[in-house]
User: What shape does this take?
Amino acid sequence: MGFNRPSRIQENALPMMLAQPPQNLIAQSQSGTGKTAAFSIAMLSHVDPQKQWPQCLCISPTYELALQIGQVIQQMGKFCPEVKMAYAIRGNRVARGVTLSEQIVIGTPGTILDWSTKYKIIDPKKITMFVLDEADIMIALQGHRDQSIRIHRHLTKDCQMLLFSATFEDSVWKFAKQVIPDPNIIRLKREEETLDTIQQFYILCQNKEDKFSALCNLYGTLTIAQTIIFCHTRRIAAWLSGRLIEEGHQVALLSGEMTVEQRAAVIERFRNGKEKVLVTTNVCSRGIDVEQVSLVVNFDLPVDLEGNADNETYLHRIGRTGRFGKKGFAVNMVENNKSMEIINQIEMHFNRKIKKLDPANLEELERISA
Assistant: This one.
């Protein structure tokens, strides 16, 4: 799979995840650090293929992340043909009274809870490894936190518990300690390291048309493999993708009102390079691992409900580039004084300078992309 040596999270977490007797783990790790591969190895190693029932349960906050984890397990598990996997996700129906024979089940909290308690197609007492991924998103999404706790309550005390989160604010710690008894704790990946490989810039613009012109200049100059552009609303995302298509770009649009199947199809096409540009709202700021993304554009800056900089979302957005130590670029479109204030807040939070970029100065752009 192209791994020559373990990443830091793999090096530190795998011995604990594979230890006998089993050990529980709480680990902080950003996406792009190899954590999915680490717990996929742990699950594949843990399974007894002779037992035709679910033994490993992995819950993920979104449909897209569940599919992404499943793809890693399938890729790694091709040498374990007797180990089978099922997706417990919305729209994946199983007949009542049927119990699953697959040893690994990956899904979202609501469906896994229904399969375990309502339809009884998973026996939680037979689950021996429980993985909770992206815990910080889990507790931010309505209902997911409570559903995760209810799933956890049905598991036995002997079940090995693993929890991963990109951030560890107080609310995440409280949740982690509630569901993971006597844990080993790994806190490795600092946000500064995520930013080490990403050059950050801002461009001053007058209005959205000006932002669009700057974007076209930018795209015409940088040598870009693939780009993700983040917008604040679905309306702006739809307008921007339409304008880019008129300019002759291959563009995909991803937003929250699409069905999960439509969203999965869009991400798959983008991952396979069918479109070079993905225009999206925050639905895509986490968990989309596309190695070829070399540029992230914040067409609209991420803000919280009070209108201040949303630093977490900013980090996750620009973290779509600079994956696995590769060089990446993040460009922020700044429309007015308030936007400039948000840039200042982001600079202060991460203690990193965001440089001003003149989109008309092509020599400067060519120099940074060389």
Remarks:
- The first helix runs from residue 8 to 17.
- The chain has 14 helices and 14 strands.
- The CA atoms of residues 14 and 296 lie 32 Å apart.
- The longest strand covers residues 198-204.
